[in-house]
């Protein structure tokens, strides 16, 4: 009899989670985050500014509520390939769906988009060694539909 109640409670809990859209969707923690240095390179600043504008518009076009959009930026001591591998691995095993219309890892930058239920996520990264810097600049943008 006790087993029946346990099964019933677990089933009820699962129904409740499905009705609420599942558990909490977690954005991965930064990889090898270091204290940020001011970026004084106009090319990097222009690229980041373009990503911020374009990615935000893309999320809003994709029905993401503007008031839920959160953007963060950090510098990482990891190289560009390690940053790309980290996000692809973590997001690939945590229920996120990769959006194939994004370029992914290219020479000098990484740009990918993912979705998980009603959450959208964009990850952009720039290899700062190509601009007389060190490490990688990572841009993370997320929002809810």
**What's the architecture, going by CATH?**
2-Layer Sandwich
Quickly name the level 1 CATH class.
Answer: Alpha Beta
Beta-strand share of residues: 25-35%
Please provide the ordered H/E string of secondary-structure elements.
HEHEHEEEE
CATH topology: TATA-Binding Protein
Quaternary structure of the protein? single chain
Count of β-strands: 6
Secondary structure tally, helices: 3
End-to-end distance: 42 Å
Strand order of the largest sheet: 1-2-6-5-4-3
Q: Unreliable runs, pLDDT <50, ≥5 residues?
A: 1-22
Q: Which structural class matches the secondary elements?
A: alpha+beta
Q: What's the gist of this structure?
A:
This protein is α+β, with helices and mostly antiparallel strands. The chain has one domain (26-144): TATA-Binding Protein (2-Layer Sandwich). It is built from three helices and six strands.
Properties at a glance:
6-stranded antiparallel beta sheet; alpha+beta; TATA-Binding Protein; 145 residues
Would you kindly provide a written description of the structure presented here, covering whatever features stand out?
The structure is a single chain. The protein has 145 residues and is an alpha+beta fold. It has one domain: TATA-Binding Protein. The chain contains three helices and six strands, in the order αβαβαββββ. A six-stranded antiparallel sheet has the order 1-2-6-5-4-3, sandwiched between helices. A hairpin with a 3-residue loop joins β3 and β4. It starts with a helix and ends with a strand.
Question: Helices and strands in order, then pairings?
Answer:
Blueprint: H1 2-19, E1 33-34, H2 42-61, E2 70-76, H3 80-92, E3 97-105, E4 109-116, E5 119-127, E6 136-144
Antiparallel strand pairs: 1-2, 2-6, 3-4, 4-5, 5-6
